[in-house]
């Protein structure tokens, strides 16, 4: 089949790599002139590694990743609120985003990636789909995969009435070198009224950090926030937070408002399929956005290999729509609880968190691992 993939992010490149292996003629169209990932670090759950089975890509990701076995939550004094042991018999990893993208890209035929190709719209017909670009001639394919992220142009063509929801907080992110964390296999979040700070170990004593602060949607205050503001705001936090912020360079701090997508009823529109953030953008609280994009890619490639065309798209829809809706909802809920600034709510939340057995917390995320891959 002749397939267009719109967007060379984590989802688009993964699906391109897998479909090319299955013998399809795939072209990847990326609006930017270069492939690069905006972001510092990323978590890739065992749900993705498991679905890749013994594919070489799993090995590549494992080589570039730091194993994480525990998620800890503490308050701003460092007092533990809960510790979640991640599922055994699987490997959860953290990576530098750019190294994840490069690892995936190394499995895609380089001549099939067209940078500087911004897709404006697509036109579905019964047996073909035409992709229209800003500066290039339109081209016709058997299938178009919209992997063009939260503000997807492909989605705007096929499902124009979808809604992107701002979640009320903005996130700073950065990457620092030479940090000796007490435990290199534990990612820690510190929850407080001032904001939520995450300290995430990466390979080779690097650390990815993030800070989520409540903010009105068009708030401009945080646009001018830099390292000194963050240091001042979090100077009552435990040593490891202060050390990481001290080591952050003045530049290179990223800032993104957090949105998710109102769950769609379908990802399949005739000859066009949505995948990744274009289909189900979620808040980062479960660390599953990119992981789910990769799962979509694996499932779609498997279905196209296993079933006839119509059945394959039907099966993809069945396996992915309901599951990712659950991820969006759960992740949004965690964000609401974690970002609360109400004194009484925080008091009750922290008291409850200390008492909930770890096994119960782990059970809450079990569904992430329980999905079929075709
Ligand atoms: C603060 C934060 C932290 C996160 N942490 C994690 C985490 O720890 N783990 C995790 O799994 N996920 C995490 N995520 C989510 C994750 O980043 C996304 O879910 C993931 O990047 C989605 O991948 P994608 O390929 O679907 O889309 P994208 O990464 O958005 O890629 C889309 C690509 O399409 C291109 N494009 C867009 N429009 C067009 C067009 N019209 N024509 C051609 N090309 C186009 C873009 O340039 C881009 O290259 C986080 C997100 C945020 C904001």
Automatic annotation (TrEMBL):
InterPro entries referenced in this protein's UniProt entry, alphabetically: FAD-bd (IPR002938), FAD/NAD-bd_sf (IPR036188)
Gene Ontology MF annotations: 3-hydroxybenzoate 6-monooxygenase activity; FAD binding; salicylate 1-monooxygenase activity
Keyword line: FAD, Flavoprotein, Oxidoreductase
Pfam families the UniProt entry points to: FAD_binding_3
Enzyme class, spelled out: oxidoreductase
Required cofactor names: FAD
NCBIfam families registered for this protein in UniProt: PRK06753.1
Protein name: Salicylate hydroxylase
Organism for this UniProt entry: Staphylococcus arlettae
């Amino acid at each position: 089949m002749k397939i267009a993939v719109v967007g060379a992010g984590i989802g688009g490149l993964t699906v391109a790599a897998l479909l090319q292996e299955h013998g399809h003629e795939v072209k990847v169209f990326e609006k930017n002139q270069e492939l690069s990932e905006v972001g510092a670090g990323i978590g890739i759950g065992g749900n993705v590694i498991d679905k890749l089975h013994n594919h070489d890509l799993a090995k590549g990701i494992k080589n570039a990743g730091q194993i994480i076995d525990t998620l800890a939550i503490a308050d701003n004094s460092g007092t533990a609120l809960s510790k979640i042991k991640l599922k055994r018999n699987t490997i959860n990893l953290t990576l530098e985003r750019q190294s994840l993208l490069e690892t995936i890209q190394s499995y895609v035929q380089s001549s099939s990636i067209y940078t500087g190709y911004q897709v404006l719209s697509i036109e579905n017909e019964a047996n073909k789909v035409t992709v229209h670009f800003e500066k290039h001639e339109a081209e016709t394919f058997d299938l178009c995969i919209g992997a063009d992220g939260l503000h997807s142009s492909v989605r705007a063509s096929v499902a124009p009435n979808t809604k992107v929801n701002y979640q009320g907080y903005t996130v700073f992110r950065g990457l620092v070198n030479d940090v000796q964390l007490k435990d290199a296999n534990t990612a820690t979040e510190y929850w407080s009224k001032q904001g939520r700070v995450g300290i995430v170990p990466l390979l080779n004593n690097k650390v990815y950090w993030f800070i989520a602060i409540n903010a009105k949607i068009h708030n401009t205050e945080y646009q001018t926030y830099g390292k000194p503001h963050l240091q001042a705001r979090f100077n009552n936090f435990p040593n490891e937070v202060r050390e990481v912020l001290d080591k952050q360079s003045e530049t290179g701090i990223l800032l993104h408002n957090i949105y998710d997508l109102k769950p769609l009823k379908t990802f399949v529109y005739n000859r066009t399929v949505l995948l990744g953030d274009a289909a189900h953008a979620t808040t980062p609280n479960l660390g599953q956005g990119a992981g789910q994009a990769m799962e979509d890619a694996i499932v779609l490639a498997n279905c196209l290999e296993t079933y006839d065309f119509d059945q394959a798209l039907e099966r993809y829809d069945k396996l992915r729509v309901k599951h990712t809706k659950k991820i969006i909802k759960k992740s949004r809920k965690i964000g609401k609880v974690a970002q609360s600034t109400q004194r009484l709510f925080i008091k009750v939340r922290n008291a409850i968190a200390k008492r909930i057995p770890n096994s119960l917390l782990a059970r809450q995320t079990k569904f992430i691992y329980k999905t079929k891959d075709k």
